[in-house]
Amino acid sequence: MKKVGRTLLSREVLVPVIVTFGAVSIVAAWGWADEAAQIEKKEMALLKTFNKEFVHITPGKGKFPESFSMGSETGEATERPVRKVTFKYDFWMAKYEVPQDLYEAVMGENPSRWKGPRNSVEMMDIQQAVEFCRRATKKMRAAQLLKPDEEIRLPSEAEWEYCCRAGTTTAYSFGESATADGDVDNQASELSAYAWHTGNAAGNDPPVGALKPNAWGLYDMHGYLWEFVSDSWSDDYSAAPTDGKSHAPQRALGKDGQVVMRGGSWKDRYEELRSSVRKKGANSMKDDAVGFRCVKDRVKP
């Protein structure tokens, strides 16, 4: 095996010298370095794309109302009491659930059951989702894709519902009914234009953003995968914040913590995909119908 060295000739010209020293070649090291560079290049390309795939949400300006009514008086007890939530800050909501290629680039693994580079990642728990946000923040700051006071995080439950509704007060962001005349069983043809559910999906097979977005340009807010939010579970809204912030997020991540998921999934009937529906789970749960999307925001004190 040969080792590449260098020797100094006249006029200080460096030329390679080949030295045999065993069974390992520096050429192999060059190959490994090239492979690492290619991986880093792919990761950076994915992070740059991710950084562009956010919608700037500016409550109180333009089409974004400053306040909205969160919950539903006609829904489950967990969706009550309906309360007014007022935002005094802006933020950026991701257009898509986190896809598998991005998750793997940041975390070094793809835990998903249903494989596909632009399919939503699933089969991770909320701690892993939070860790993804932490690592993405670090990498994006280092690449100057984020400012030092900006971060990637999970949305609060209020932020999520506000963005899902997209200015509406109806059961779904597109109207009051998921079904149309002539629908049978769980066909829900009105919903099917916007969401993957049991009436039109057989698994987590599609890429993100394959169906129509809501009025604010956000995809798959109804259906596809349930989405983790940062709040700790509560049985109703009686003690929930009214300023848009997360409710007891550290408790959600602690021992025996209960998390909140929103949006419904491809495993659920259309009734479970309403804008106000909530679902709880253990913070250790992993499921092929659960994923997450991110918020880009300024770090709050």
Automatic annotation (TrEMBL):
Transmembrane segment boundaries: 12-33
EC number of the protein: 2.7.11.1
Family annotation (Pfam families): FGE-sulfatase
Sulfatase-modifying factor enzyme-like domain residues: 67-296
Keywords assigned: Kinase, Membrane, Transferase, Transmembrane, Transmembrane helix
Keyword Repeat: no
MF annotations from Gene Ontology: formylglycine-generating oxidase activity; protein serine/threonine kinase activity
Matching InterPro entries: CTDL_fold, Sulfatase_Mod_Factor_Kinase, SUMF_dom, SUMF_sf
Protein name: Serine/threonine-protein kinase pkn1
